[in-house]
Amino acid sequence: MRMRLLDAVDEDRRDVEVLLTALQQAVAEVHGLGGMVHLPGGGMSGILYLVADSGLPEAMTRPWLIIPARGTAPPSRAARNDTTAWQPDLAPPDPVPGRDPAALRPSRLPVGIGHLAVPVPGGGRRRGALSVLFAPGDEPGAAECAFLDEVTAWMSGRLASSGILSPSPTLLRALENEPGPREAAPPWDVEGVPSVTYTWDLRTGELTSDRPVEEVLAGIDPEVMSGGIEAWAALIHPDDLPGAVAGFDTGIQLRGGFQNEYRVRRQDGTYLWIEARARTITDDEGRR
Length: 288
Known about the structure:
By secondary structure, the protein is α+β, with helices and mostly antiparallel strands. It is 30% helix and 23% strand. It comes from Streptomyces alanosinicus. Residues 258-288 form the PAC domain.
């Protein structure tokens, strides 16, 4: 019956509405406490972003806003391995450098909340994950897993034409809400401004630079480059992150240059405006 309800969803519904409707039906059918959907962030290839949630208080979803694709939490494992992942006792996701999910975890959660995640198919090897939380003592069976697989297949089919799950997705939150007003970036004279040249390997997420980044960006964690693109993304101001990711995506997919202005967090918690300029370099076969 619930799949029939999903099939009745209007074709002109926005992507975020499609995701939320599917998630709500999934949680209700398997009698879950609530659920989440994570999708990959385009150029930020090592990160999964929370793009929809249902039935969960903000305090529970806050640790899950940004999680590493190579992590051990059920959504990370489901997306990476293209398989169902189950955890009998909810635990915080693996930390992204510069962000500690354990510190954001609510202190009064019941023990034994189960966490099930199934992959959301995408283009190529790109996958997201739909996950559902279960009350202590409730463990989903084969029927529940099969239904969630049906829902994610439906989601993937409905989103295929939008590009959200294609090899060039942009961050869904940027599509749902245009970036709000923010303080203007201060003007600068490019000539004579200290700069650092970095290389980002899109296959591994590794970052390297021609000089210590803290020499140019005062107050930035000197270990950020060793943490890869996940560590750098974790430093970007939340209000600026959607635009930054969309800019990276556009430049990478068009094999061109891109320029962004955004804020990054210093170790003392204050933010520094930077201008990032980059261009995509490919090999003879056009691979980035």
